[in-house]
Amino acid sequence: MNDRNWRPVLSMRWKHLLFVHWRAPVQALRPLIPPVLEIDTYDGSAWVGFVPFVMQAVRPVWLPPIPRLLDFPEANVRTYVRLGAQRGVWFFSLDAQHRLGVWVARRYWSLPYYYAHMHWSRTAPNTFEYTVERRDKHSPRGYAQLQYQIKGTPAETEPGSLEHFLVERYTLFTGTPRKLYRAEVAHLPYEIQPATLLHLEQNLVELAGIPLVGEEPIAFYAPGFGVLASALRDAVQSDYSGDTARTRF
Q1: Using an 8 Å Cβ cutoff, are 45 and 24 in contact?
Q2: So what's the pLDDT on residue 173?
Q3: Is it true that domain 8-235 has CATH number 2.40.400.10?
């Protein structure tokens, strides 16, 4: 966690995270990101991620947990950005199977959440399936179908590695056409393990406006942990400016 000058407002657990990533040209992402943010790169490339997982026990920090009431699958499409020295995540879309959660996230966190019919299951001790069917008035129909298998033992990522670059981020950036915001999260360091994609079909990255011509993804899995999250706050002191007509929110 890079900035401790914040208070948590949400508590949750992130479980069974699959990280699927593709290389992407910086120039393909530049029109989709607010100009004030720099697109972060590793090995000369930007990276686009598709991350399906399970949210559990989502609640304001002042409420006790309510078993299973706010447990639901989620999946996001993302890339990695910087504001000065602060590294963070930019979300192109977040699909969730919880209508109230989608409404709250769009209204109070300015995040591009979409309601979707989703299903997650463990079909064998180390094999998982996940489906997404986006059914939201704010977006064309989106879908994802995947099956994956994990192996090995979870271990923390090595500083300087690609995996560390992709997961060890504790700030998200989001915005409206006139203002850029940030929120912080706090959790234990990621422990990840290898994952093999047995099947993957999806159009969620394409719906975000990102071409993935001929790119083969890499994948790894994280069992998960408890998370605390802040409210939104201004990312910069004044409104940002730029080609807002080309910026997608």
Answers
A1: yes
A2: 97
A3: yes
